[in-house]
Structure formats: structure tokens, C-alpha cells
Amino acid sequence: MWPGALPLLLLLAVLLHPSRCTQGGKVNFREKEKQVLDNILGPGRYDARIRPSGENGTDGPAIVRVNLFVRSIATISDIKMEYSVQLTFREQWLDERLRFNDFGGRLKYLTLTEASRVWMPDLFFSNEKEGHFHNIIMPNVYIRIFPNGSVLYSIRISLTLSCPMNLKLYPLDRQICSLREYSCLKVDLLFKREFSYYLIQIYIPCCMLVIVSWVSFWLDQSAVPARVSLGVTTLLTMATQTSGINASLPPVSYTKAIDVWTGVCLTFVFGALLEFALVNYASRSDMHSDNIKKQFPPSDQMEHSSSIDPSSELLEPDGSANFAMKPLVRHPEDTMSMDKLQQCEIHMQPRKKNCCRSWLSKFPTRSKRIDVISRIFFPIVFAFFNLTYWSTYLFREEEGDE
After folding, report:
1. Mean pLDDT of the chain
2. What does the alpha-carbon distance between residue 402 and residue 396 come to, in Å, rounded to a whole number?
């Protein structure tokens, strides 16, 4: 055999022998990961029942950092005062017993799917009503162990949590729903109610009902069936609207902003119905006065007028009227002529002109005057109420946000 053939055969044997190293000299770190896991979590090496030491190996508390990623908010129930949320919940802490060699930074972390193999913080949600983990297709949970012993725990959960609400500003309110506090952990979720829905479904319809009730002021006072049906219909519709609003809210012991609105609107509608009752009474009173006037012809009135005693002193020296000094009526047989009657003048102090009275004097009957006053009074008062309501509750909302 040739002396130089032995090195050549050894070289061929090395090249043909199966190697566990990949091309370029890279190590299979999947096998290294298994070896590291067996090394740090093997039997007798790690006890998950023991809490890790504090910072710098002291016996202090284990610091757990928590963060939440809210994936979706399903429902917010005002009646039950609860909300449902789906979130990704993460915890991170340091366990120096889980340190391992990262092979020069090439093994970034280890992954576990069994949370029971390492120590876990005893964190819980104190206001939880219902909750469940997500297991489709596999359990949505993982644990990552980093070379310095840091542990990251991540899980996707769905929770139904209680949220005591203050509905005084409903529906202009904002609610802060907390996940409560345990040790030093507290999470606050701020919910702002979308006002456009309530503006379209509640506020505008109530305004329209109030305005429709004012149509009664423009109808003739003799149109009793039309005015009664209009007033009763708007009143029942407003009452139904109020009942529907309260049915979707929990019973509370304080007055809400929506209660103030519906209560005042209901009062305006009821006031319009009472206004017609007053108009109807005034109309019947006017008719009764007209009937009395028709029973006495003008000639009778003149005869009674002619019996005034011209010698009666109706005026005091200072010019003020005095109707009690002398009798004003003489005997029927002692009448005076029209010439003497014309000479009898009573000088009264002229009243000051009043623009409102002069304007109302254009309407001969009291019922018509009540309708005319209501046409102006009701819209002005309702506009003033709107100005006060919106300025009060909108400013309260801004103060609550601060």
C-alpha cells in the first residue's frame, strides 16, 4: 500500500461521515434549546412552588410588571352595570433560577406552553363576574424565558366585569370602569357615551312633541275636539317616550340629566293641555257675559244712565274721584233731560299708556288673549330652559373630564 494513501483515506472518511453540524458550522439550536430546558427545569433542579428572590438576590418582593392590550369591548350594560372585554394579558418578572447560556446571543429565548412548570404570580380580577380562556385551536398562552432569567407570560382571555356607574349626567356622562386594585396594580378604562344616538332618539323627538303641543294655541277656541285630541295625544306619546327611556336604565336614587329633560318636556306638554282648559273656561265666561248684555237693550241702559244726579259731587277738591259722598241715583220720577246729562262730566285721571295692554286690547275676548300670550310665553320659557340645560350639563361634563 502506498505510504501517502492513509491520509487520503482518513480525509474521505471524515467527509463521508454524517455530521450534526449544518453547513457553515451553524449549531442546531432547537436541540440546544431542549438541552437548556432539561438543564434548568429538569427533575430536582427547579421547584415551581418557591417564589423567586427579589432584586439583586435579596429576600424582597418579586416585582411583577403587567400590561394589557384591549382587543375588543363587546357590551356595556347600563342595567346590569357591567361590561364584557376581550384582552391580551401579559406579566413579566425576574426569576434568577432560570438563567441560561445564550450562546453568544444566538439563543434569544426559550418558549413554554405549560404555565405550571414555572412559578406564576397569584394575580386575579376582584370584580370579575365571568371569564374564560381561549383554547381554539390551541390554548392561546405562551411563556418566554430570556437568558437573564426574565419570564414573560402572555394569555388571551375574555372577562365580564362589574362597573358601578354614576348616571347623574346620563346621557352626557363618561364612565370610568376599573379592574380594581390589588397590591399596587390598578387599571382604569374610560368609556365616553356616544351622544349622537341619544340626540336623534330622545332629545329631538321630545322637542318635536313639545312644539306640536303648541299647535293648539293657533287653533280656534271653538275647535274643542281637535285641541283636546292634540293635547291628549302628545301627552300620552311623551309619557310613553319617558317610560321607554327609563326601561333601559337601572333604578337609581338620584336624578339623571335625562330625567330633567323628559320631566320638563312632559311639563310643557301638560301645560299646553291645561292652557286649553283655561281657554275653554274663559270662552264660556265670555259667552255668559254676552248673553247678559243681550238681555238689556240700549234704551234701558240709557234710562238708568239718565237717573244720575248732576248735583252729585263726584270729585274732591284735589281732583280725586269720590263715589261715596252723595247718592248717585235719584228717584225714577225725578229724571233729567239729555241736555243736563251731557253737562254732567266726570273728570278721571288718565291712565298711563301701556304697550302690552294696548296690544292685547286688539283681541276682544279673554280666551283669545290667553292663546296669544301662550304663543309667546311657552317658546320663550322653553328656549331659556334649553340654554340653561345645555350650558349646565355640558360644562359639568368638561369639569368631570379634567
Report:
1. 77
2. 10
Strand pairing class (65-77; 82-94): antiparallel
Is the pLDDT assigned to residue 184 strictly greater than 80? no
Alpha helices in 296-365 (DSSP H): 298-305, 338-343, 355-360
Residue with cell 320631566: 263
CATH value of 29-166 in 3.30.420.40, 2.40.128.20, 2.70.170.10, 1.10.260.40: 2.70.170.10
Grid cell of 335 as nine digits: 229724571
C-alpha radius of gyration, the chain, whole number: 47
**Structure pTM?**
0.57
Please write the tens of the pLDDT for every residue from 381-400.
Answer: 999 999 999 998 887 755 55
β-pair partners for 90: 67, 154
Q: What H or E segment, with its residue span, contains residue 292?
A: helix 257-295
- Tell me the three state secondary structure of residue 161: strand
Specify the CATH superfamily of domain 196-285+373-399: Neurotransmitter-gated ion-channel transmembrane domain (1.20.58.390)
CATH fold match for the domains 29-166 and 196-285+373-399: no
**Among the listed residues 139, 204, 194, 190, the one whose alpha carbon sits nearest the alpha carbon of residue 171:** 194
Length of the chain: 402
Does 209 have pLDDT greater than 60? yes
Locate the domains of the chain by residue range. 29-166, 196-285+373-399
The CA distance from 317 to 319, in Å, is 5
Give the angle 259-261-267 at the CA atoms, nearest 5°: 100
What pLDDT, in 10s, does the model give residues 227-239?
A: 899 999 999 999 9
The cell 259722598 sits on which residue? 325
In tens, the pLDDT along 81-102 reads 899 999 999 999 999 888 888 8
pLDDT single digits (tens) 237-293:
999 999 988 888 888 888 889 999 999 999 999 999 999 889 888 888 767 666 676
The yes-or-no verdict on residue 342 having pLDDT over 70 is no
pLDDT at residue 8, rounded to an integer: 56
Helix axes 257-295, 366-401, angle to 10 degrees: 170
234, 272 Cβ separation under 8 angstroms: yes
